[in-house]
Amino acid sequence: MKHVLTALALLIALPAQAAEKLTVALDWTPNTNHVGLYVAQAKGWFTEAGLDVEILPYTDTSSGTLVSTGVAQFGILSAVGFHSQRAMGADMTAVMAVVQHETGRLVFNGERDDIQRPADLDGKIYAGFGSAWENALISSIIKHDGGEGTFDTVTLGTSAYEALANGSVDFTLEVSTWEGVNSVLLGRPQRAFSYADYGVPDQHTTFLGGNATWLAANTATAGAFVKAAQRGYGFAAENPQAAADMLIAETGGMLSNPELVHASMQALVDGGFLKDEGEAVGLIDPALVTGITGFLFSAGILRDANGDVLETMPDVSSWTTNAYLAH
């Protein structure tokens, strides 16, 4: 009996196994594209998986750079940024498709009679964000409609939407599930051209990605994290309003417009952006990855580690994996 009590005392004295610390970098200030992370945090699913997950605040350093350099093990990655950095040899792999389809669209004032088709945008003023992707995208859309693909650009960043509303620019790009939703809430009439209607391949617009070297050395931990995040996004897909409440609560006042958050979550679900019918949440479609990479390559956007434009289409087969997802 004495030996049993001694063994029990030793067990009680042993410290509980510490949760493994992981960091996740965001690609922007908290928004509904990040909802699954915050749901998993609120529900305790990361803790259940033996993980202590820190969601890093957004900074001027891109999430892709933080992941590829190993500062963060995981990050939310915009698709174009991911493809561009991966082409340059960045050490990261996409492990989950957060947003299944293209949410971006070209928008303009809905009361304008002089814009009826993309070719009408020739010579007009575009409020931009400073990326090569925008120029290639818009030129391609206009040319696909028979136009010249020429337009003037004023780089305004997020001020683009106010500029569009007050008429100082003619058109811009927006995320339909965020800025598009907000324009409705503000009572701003808009019309839009969808990229896919004018020859631009559909794409997963947002990924969860991991540092490739770290993933290879920590497959069990990586799998535990990705499955917990996937569970969070799965909950959000089925319970958008409850998930919106968790996102608002977990971000400690950073989201000051609950109406926008709730409407955005509903738009993500109604548009089928979080989940394809009959598929697991987060599943990456290699055909979509190849298609948009081909578009970026043809447009001369992809560059190598030396900054030179790629001369051959890259092999994207190792850029993504579904291995860590629950199927």
Descriptive key words:
single chain; 327 residues; alpha/beta; D-Maltodextrin-Binding Protein, domain 2; 5-stranded mixed β-sheet; 10 strands; globular
SSE layout:
Blueprint: H1 2-13, E1 20-25, H2 35-43, H3 45-48, E2 51-56, H4 63-68, E3 74-78, H5 79-87, E4 92-99, E5 104-109, E6 125-128, H6 132-144, E7 152-155, H7 160-166, E8 171-175, H8 176-185, E9 190-194, E10 206-211, H9 212-217, H10 219-238, H11 240-250, H12 258-270, H13 286-298
Parallel strand pairs: 1-2, 1-3, 6-7, 6-8
Antiparallel strand pairs: 3-10, 4-10, 5-8, 5-9
Tell me about this structure.
It is a single chain. It contains 13 helices and ten strands. With 327 residues, the chain is an alpha/beta fold. It has two domains: 18-101 and 204-298, Periplasmic binding protein-like II (D-Maltodextrin-Binding Protein, domain 2); 104-198, D-Maltodextrin-Binding Protein, domain 2. The strands form two sheets. The chain has a five-stranded mixed beta sheet. α6 links the parallel β6 and β7 (152-155). α2 (35-43) crosses α10 (219-238), α2 crosses α11 (240-250) and α8 (176-185) crosses α12. The longest helix is centred in the C-terminal third of the chain and has 20 residues, at 219-238. It is globular, with a radius of gyration of 22 Å. It starts with a helix and ends in a 29-residue tail after the last helix. Keywords: Iron, Metal-binding, Pyridoxal phosphate, Signal, Thiamine biosynthesis, Transferase. Pathway: Cofactor biosynthesis; thiamine diphosphate biosynthesis. Residues 1-18 form the signal peptide. Belongs to the NMT1/THI5 family. InterPro entries: NMT1/THI5, SsuA/THI5.
